[in-house]
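Figure S7 source data.
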Amino acid sequence: MEPADAIYTRRSVRSYVSEPLGSEDLDKIERWIRGAERLTDDPFEYDYLGPEQIKTVLKWRAPHYIAIYSGRDMMSAVNVGFVFQQVDLRMQADGIGSCWLGMAKPESPLQHGGMEWGVSMSFGKPAEYPEVDKGADRKPLSRISDTEDPRLEPARLAPSAVNSQTWYFKKNGDAYDLYYKPKILKIPGITYWNYNDLGICLAHLYMAYPDTFSFSRGVSEDKKYVGTVRFRSRKDPVPSAGTGPIIF
Ligand SMILES: Cc1cc2nc3c(=O)[nH]c(=O)nc-3n(C[C@H](O)[C@H](O)[C@H](O)COP(=O)(O)O)c2cc1C
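Tokens for the predicted flavin mononucleotide complex:
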């Protein structure tokens, strides 16, 4: 399966065989993280942890976790969501199960400059794969955008913390302005995870339209404005390729 196809089939995996993955799989995952496109140049760090190094109230364990550290500001957390959702899709397309986890902290958080632990991701060989329902538990396009553009379908299907889907696209000429539309949830840490969600939904658009997706940060007084997505025409000049941030 191609990574972009996993947009339509992936689910969070919460049941794993306890046996760890082999070094080939772990090396591949590390390459996917390093090779993922960055949305911004905000820094982040990550560590691989085993189940015994994780503090969580969750009843299940995975053989592997990635603990991710970044700044607490919106764009740092959006960038984390953007990068690691590309990795999530690649894992799931490759038969590796994964689940974003706010509720699984490192037992002993490391010092990574001024960065704090923000979110984790479990992964490993799935013991059971949740039934795929192709987005039936997601908001319809009419609730995530003022324009029902089928090109936004990959964003609609994106996973989010407690499936809150706090994103809203407003048509702006030939582009879409993305806004954070918070849901009132009394969960400590949820704002950071919602910022991850915004990057996750942008990663779905990028993975679905890698040749035409572009993202820029316009100027706005509105603190809930995240940025502007454009689907360039294939005739438009292609910005310089590479692994740098894809803001242009
Ligand atoms: C930033 C973030 C944090 C999450 N934290 C947790 C968590 O702590 N525990 C959990 O079981 N699932 C967690 N999830 C998984 C979501 O509940 C799940 O993605 C959502 O319900 C949609 O389901 P799906 O991933 O199967 O499509 C998290 C997801 C995201 C994106």
